[in-house]
Amino acid sequence: MISLINALMPSVLTPRELPTESPLPVRSSPHTQPVRPSVQPPERTARAPASFQCILVMRDLLALLSPVRADSMDPNEEAAEERSHIIDGKSGCSYARQAILQWLVRLRADRDHRLYMVKDLDAEIEPFAHLINRTPLRPRASDTPAAPEPRIRDRERERRNRGMTTTAPVNPEGPARTGRNPERGRASDSRSRSRQPPAPPPAVVPIKHTIWSIPDVVPFDVAFGTRPSEGMTTYEQRVKPSDDGLLPQLWLPVSAYVCVMIDLITCETDWEILSYALCHFPVQMSNKYLFCGPRTRSAIIRLISELCTVVYEDKLTTHIGPLATSLKATDVAGLAYHTLTTLMSYHRTFNKQLQDDLLRTFLRGLNKNTTTVKPCLQALAIAAFELQPSTTKFLGEIVDKLSQIMSNPTIAGYILELLCIIGSIPSLYANFTDDNYRRVPCPVAESYALTQHVFILAYYQIYIWFLALKLQDRPKHIPYITRHLLLANEHYTQVDEPTELENVAALGLGEQVTGEIVEAATEAISQVQTESGSNPSNEAPVAETPNIPSGLLSPCSIAPPKEMELDPSYFALQLSPYPDIRRASLRGRLVPNDDLLGRTLRSLDRVPVMDFHKVGIIYVGPGQTHEREILGNRAGSPAYTHFLDNIGRLIRLKDQKDLYTGGLDQHYDSDGKYAYAWWDVIIQMLYHTATLMPNREGDEQFAFKKLHIGNDYVRIVWNDSGKPYRFDTLAT
């Protein structure tokens, strides 16, 4: 049957009369109602018969895959009764259902919603399979090697005899050591009366064979690999509803497939099937072109609601029974959290209640072990951008929970990244009080247990949240920040220089009144002194701090500073006691005329006051696989253009002096007239967009584009090729 549908998908048949009866859904559901036939567009008539047959075969496969549920069938429909009979007869074979599921999870769609299949999913599935011991990197669920796969006849015989015979446990020591030997005499029988009867032997647990693992072996041939089908699609936006308001059934019933996956997650009894679905379905859901249409959208909403319920109530493995000894319920929950994270990309269809349920489910995952905490932290970082109203609502609880689990060094980096993201979005913490700010975790007290990257990220988080404070509230938080900074040095005899400079920066920032100018200058002081490790005294020098790249390629890439005129009142404001109006005396102190101080002040002019970053963006068009084809694109799809509009702001490169240009030409438009950039008060990010750069004459290898994009540490690939992107495509 799978070979049949593989053969039908890309075929184009001759026109013939269409069947008068449209295919029925696999089960009665508000998301999979029967669709009546309507007049087909002329351009689709030639392939409509093949499409109809694909739909019939697809629904039969879904019927075989769906778990046995009496309430999922409508007894009033003959088709439903027939399908129910099929399920009762054949759905018990795990190998058959596994083969169907292996074929379904490999379906993909390109930007025109044309179907194609991918064969090798091991690289994408391995992180999920690793959680449940299905990879060779970790031991299996059982310490003993798995038995060889039984032959087909053996499987049939075992299935027929299942439950009909019971084999008594065999005593390994033979009949001479049995509890009751009929050949024993009366004396021995009487002597054993006073003894306690032997304990009954433990119940024999049947051994379940593992039918899938990584690398995954499929029992069918993906004949058409990554070639998009011209005869079968999943959705077509250009098709208009008929007079009765229904859409013509021209595409594969993806909504019915989503409903079957809901049944697998909520009531599946076979762990092999459930584990395979939880590992592979998140990867498939990331292909949003496959899951389009109003009915599929409704099915996805129901999927999220059901999944949130079973995960929040810890009912994901209720129907499975006891798991293997090496597996925990939290390992299975970790797979479900990864699925919810992927489903968050469909947030445009969520209502407020569903968004709250998602955040509440992720918040509950922070109470468990590392298996669930990591995906929940990553999901909350995405929710900070995509689900801002609900994130704002639960932000207080999130911060409280993060402060409780901050002591775990294995997840400290994830927590700091989440806090930095939240601190960069002012709308999230707009309602924060002083107590909320103090509850933001301060990990520098445990800095001796953290890596250098996490250590630097912790100080960066302090910058972010200190700048988030209102100007008049900063002096109130200085003692709290100073105390935690000193706690980072409680294991040392002296306060290290970076921490001491951090204290100075905090004290200085707390007494400033200007805003961005003074904030940026103070941060620059901290950066230059931290990196140079200046030690004015004759004490032993501190350990050399790693030199963090500033993002500047050369001095010529820095735009000349724009001349600014300072208002004379600025200096008077610096000497006034404002905002601390309780202070009686003026602020400020005389500085010594010292050469060291002069060199330090002069070095400030050479240190950027902001962090600069460069990111490359590449568009891969339909069917493109080679470097020259990809770099030669001058435009992309509408979805790609929408992505660019939301990732940053379009800036003019010529004579650009206000923003970091990432090495792009600012005088002759040799790298294009425009570029996308994003910035805030402490970060500037420039995107090297390949489609905005010109294709120069004589540059057949696009060396000038590779000069910029090839040196970017981060590259974003928008893949519309219909094929998996190979990361070695762009040679650098």
TrEMBL record:
| Extent of Polar residues compositional bias | 528-538
Entry keyword annotation includes Disulfide bond? no
Residue stretches of biased makeup (Basic and acidic residues): 150-161, 180-192
Q: One GO molecular function term? A: GTPase activator activity
The record's region (Disordered) falls at: 16-46, 136-205, 528-548
The record's GO CC annotations read: nucleus; TSC1-TSC2 complex
UniProt-listed InterPro entries: ARM-type_fold, Rap/Ran-GAP_sf, Rap/Ran_GAP_dom, Tuberin-type_domain, Tuberin/Ral-act_asu
From which domain of life does this come? Answer: Eukaryota
Record-given protein name:
Tuberin
Q: Which Pfam families match?
A: Rap_GAP, Tuberin
GO biological process terms, semicolon-separated: negative regulation of TOR signaling; regulation of small GTPase mediated signal transduction
| Domain (Rap-GAP) ranges | 601-732
Q: Which UniProt keywords apply?
A: GTPase activation
